[in-house]
Amino acid sequence: MAAIDIDSEDLPGLYQSANQASLSSQNVYYTGLKWYLFLLVLAAFVSYLRPTDAVGALVSASLFLITLGILIFIRVKRPDDVWYNGRAVAESVKTIAWRWMMRAEPYEDDENIEIVSRTFLSDLKTILDQNKSLSHSLQAGIALNDPISEKMREVRKLPVAERLLVYVNHRVTDQANWYWMKSRFNKRRAQQWFWVSVVLHSAAILMLLYRIKDPSFALPVEVLATAAGAVLTWLQAKKHNELNSAYALAAHEIVIIKGESTSVHDEGQLSEFVTNSESAFSREHTQWVARKGD
Known about the structure:
The chain is mostly helical. The chain has 2 domains: about 15-155, no CATH class; about 160-294, no CATH class. The chain contains 10 helices and no strands. It has helices spanning about 15-50, 55-75, 80-100, 115-130, 140-145, 150-155, 160-215, 220-240, 240-260, 265-290. α1 runs antiparallel to α3, α3 runs parallel beside α6 (about 150-155) and α3 packs antiparallel against α10 (about 265-290). It starts with 12 loop residues before the first helix and ends with a helix. The model has no long low-confidence stretch (mean pLDDT about 85).
């Protein structure tokens, strides 16, 4: 039998809807933060260029008013809440979907497949009920997709060896590759923003030293200080260093988990392997959600 490929479109509609809501809200949050920081620096620059001019003061005040509006929007709308909650729901749905496909606990074989399916649907409903605050952000059209797709049913019918192959290739390996990619990305970004910060601080120090030599010469020290603060705020929001370490550790753990697949030969061993794997994935997701409170 030909290998079955499983992608996000084959998972329950709730996964796709929650995933889209999370990605959209993440984009809104970071776009708002970027404009907030950019306009703060721009306001400081306008104030430097025209320190005694009424027009300059009016422009600076207008820019600060816009940044205040962005700050209020982020505080009231809380796109970061939808981002984190949507990610938590999506990953929870993905976990139980793979458990169901692999016939892993609590979806082991039963005389009637409909009994196991009803248990799965009940668990989906529980996940949704526990995250009702996300309901206004879910896309109804996507969420109405069949919660148990034909691909999911096909995978569940496969013998142990073929099911294991699907799980290792399309769940474990994909997850490891995603973590490695994200780890490398965050490492690069952390280094780039570090050097931007170094350049800004160095330029500010040189300007201050030059001001000692010639106090009458006006230099944009305050603009650079604002820009340096903006960079620090951005780094704290993106958490590149923290994510680099967390994703690298998760990738190593998954590679070790993948090695354990060679000892899987029957239904019980497959169920235990999947349970252990999904528990490891869930630990990272739980830590991710916990970062919201940092």
